[in-house]
Amino acid sequence: MSLKLASRLLLTFFVSLFYTSSYAQLKDELGAIHGNFQIDAANYQRDTIIGADPGKEVFRYNAFGNINYQKGGFSAGVRFESYNPPLLGYLPGYRGSGVPYRFARYQHKDIDITVGNFYEQFGSGITLRAYENRGLLYDNALDGMRVIFTPKKGIAIKGLVGKQRTYFSLSPGIVRGIDAEINIMELFDSILGKSKTKVIIGGSYVSKYQQDQNPTLVLPENVATGAGRFTVLRGGFNFNAEYAYKANDPSYQNKYSYKDGHAIIASTSYGMDGFSIMLSGKMLDNMSFRSDRDAQNTIAMINYQPDFSKFHTYSLMAYYPYATQPNGEVGGTGEIQYKFKKGTLLGGKYGMDITINGSAYYALDTTGIAPINDTLNNYKYSTNYGSIGNEYYHDFNIEITKKLSKKLKFTLMYANQFLNQSIVQFNTPDKEEHPDITSHIGVLDVIWRYKTGSAIRIETQGFFGEYDYKEHAIDANGKKNITSNTGSWLSGLIEWTPNTHWSITVADQYNFINPDDTKKIHYYFGMIGYTNGPTRVSVSYGRQRQGIFCAGGVCRFVPASSGLSISISSSF
User: Measuring CA to CA, which residue among 175, 40, 144 is closest to residue 94?
Assistant: First the structure.
């Protein structure tokens, strides 16, 4: 190497070192800015075959952008949102643009203070959970103040007060809460040493205040709920349970009943090499808790009532999902996962994974008492906790995943599902209009990674249902005739990923068994996606059939639609 070349390399090294250290120092002095953006837009079209009618506003979009700043223990941020109007299937109250989320937060040693908007959860969320889910356009963020105090290792105390987001405004009720959690092992580590068992206990108290402006009922203005919980961890074993009590809280959700509420949630799991088992159960009785007693849909929900049933990603498996019944339900979920090791009879050369899952939920056995007058406590109902009512839902499924070679892998699934559609999705006893649904569903998913960064995935699904829907007709005498039909579906999908940037997907769902030939409809779909670092762009065209979309027991109605969609997201 020449002296001249060595001098240039040395100079380049020192310049780079100076630039890097200067940039790091400047970043420390000025702080860091980061954020993300997303736009989902659609141009809908009228499609009489599937009953899709977007109305006059055929172009709709959901858009948001987060910008956050952080320097040391201080952070602040804002989020701009725009829906003019929102995409079909989302609550129309979101229409408009604004900054519904802004906050400032300071953290230093044992204190953490937030003013403005924030999300928070106490325990399992049965007393309070403020969170966001973009897929549902669900956002019940609190606007107020929160303080987290950790006076000693192993102790955390949270206190908050605020109002909840309702579209681009705030709900009328004021939410106040306190939560305390103690990690026994951390608190007494000098005595217990390095114990393999961890015990965590906690409790929460949440209340709301809302003025009584009802002209006929005497409604409580202050309503409180309290809960206690504990968690035990040791190795691969985990057990946690929580009980909550809620004072009488007449609302639209419970038909203005004055009965108090109760909830018990428990789950346990154990895992070791190649094997795991999970069991969870819950009982909910009149646990709807909102900062606006007259709110409907997903608006102003203070607490979260979890759904333990399996979250399906395959479309036909998820077409009739379960929605948590806040007025009362009992049930649970169990799951076993096992990995057959390589070299065994079933494992073969690459091993095999099998998952068996089952969920079942039922109504509570209740007896109602009709209201007599406006006096508090006259409208109640009694619950027999030693008995259960009608079945709401069940889902028993098995999933097998196996690698056949270094490039070829498949997933095979089967599910038997039942849904009490009239109650779970429509809250009506009319089973003629909304009959029970029993279905058998199968899925085969094959992926071939033919070279590094490139793959072809082929997915086939079959849905074989009884009483998928019913049709109504009026005879010459004006009498409504109800005809029971069986609906069965086939679905196919091909996804090609030629490289790490591009992907192409085509799919179709077909109602291949239907007594009415006009209902044998193809729901076609095509999409092209491009990804480069944190940026993703996708363009799609096709049909969306009417249904219910759920996540975590919270659901939204999705109408039939047809048209062109584009999605753009990026972060920095």
Answer: 40
